[in-house]
Amino acid sequence: MNRVFVSVMDGKEEPVWIGNVKPYVEKLLEKLEYDGEEISILFCDDVLIQQLNKQYRQIDSATDVLSFENGEEYSDEEGTWTSMGDIVISLDTVPVNVKYFETDENTEMKRLLLHGLLHLNGFDHWEEHIEKNKEPECEMLVLQENLLKEFSDFVLIS
Q1: Dihedral of alpha carbons 144, 48, 61, 38, sign
Q2: What is the pLDDT along the chain (158 residues), one digit of tens a residue?
Q3: What angle (nearest 5°) sits at the alpha carbon of residue 74, between those of residues 71 and 75?
Q4: CA nearest 121: which of 113, 129, 132?
């Protein structure tokens, strides 16, 4: 069992599909055989993600997804949990990615959630990034794209 908390920054309208995020991430965690993890997901705008990117990565520009690892363990009445960390996704950047990758919002949002989740679990892609019309080579991005294909039937955004 895992815990997934989903929220939208104050002042940003909550997307109609927000209720589909938790079940999707729970299915990914199950597929990856992760158990006892707690993950927080925040949807925001480009202004906030740019501030976070500048503060934590010294990159003064907006990005699509950031992951902040935690790794602390705690126990409560339901068991012992590992707080894996936080995933932050800019809703402003998703349409830009959709256009660049010539895909749809459903696929792109699933990719970003999966990308953030893999980072929280120790994966990294170093200097390689997903590029249009180019197959990834590093382990993380290959796994990401394979899982994205496996979960292609899951409708996050309709």
Answers
A1: negative
A2: 999 999 999 999 999 999 999 999 999 999 999 999 999 999 999 999 999 999 999 999 999 999 999 999 999 999 899 999 999 999 999 999 999 989 999 999 999 999 999 999 888 886 757 666 667 677 888 899 899 999 999 999 98
A3: 150
A4: 113
Burial (CB < 10 A; 0-12, 13-18, 19+), residue 21, is buried
CB 83 within 8 A of CB 70: yes
The 8-class DSSP code of residue 149 comes to: H
**CB contact set of 146 (below 8 Å; sequence gap of 6+):** none
- What is the C-alpha to C-alpha distance for residues 129 and 79, in angstroms, rounded to an integer? 37
Are the beta carbons of 67 and 42 closer than 8 angstroms?
A: no
Written as one letter, the residue type at 87 is I
- Whole-prediction pTM value? 0.91
